[in-house]
Protein: ATP-binding protein
Organism: Streptomyces malaysiensis subsp. samsunensis
Amino acid sequence: MKPELTGPDGRVVVRRWTRHPRCVALARADLRKALAGWGLVAVEEVALLVLSELITNAVRHARVPGHKIETRYLYQGDEVQIEVHDASDERPELRNPSCEVAHGRGLVLVEALADRWGVTPCPVVGKSVWAVLTAPGSGAGQAMKGGMRHGEADAEMDGT
């Protein structure tokens, strides 16, 4: 499938999805293709897992009739920023689920795998949950690891 919008320099891929579980696999395929084109296959496995967790949360929890989920992949040199925008104003919460609970571990994985991540309110409606991954060996990711985290907003990070 062709993305709805690709930036003029090929550094941004944007796609809108209906809120349905099958969009997770489709979004993963788009991200895999973008990463290959940007030469960032070294982060592919982690990026696909992070995206799966973020978009699955949007599919499950962002129940706003008439609104779609939007994914954005931004190529930033040796980094990729993965964003999932939805129309819900409810902020995701990092939890520490017990072993008996079947759900609630997605953001724990994002926290562990991403160099940084956060939630940014959108200007009109909803929010963007984003994560940044750095290619191994670049050094930038390790220096930033532990920096901006859950709940911190950064206008530069979401492109606004």
Q: What stands out?
A: DSSP finds four helices and six strands in the chain.
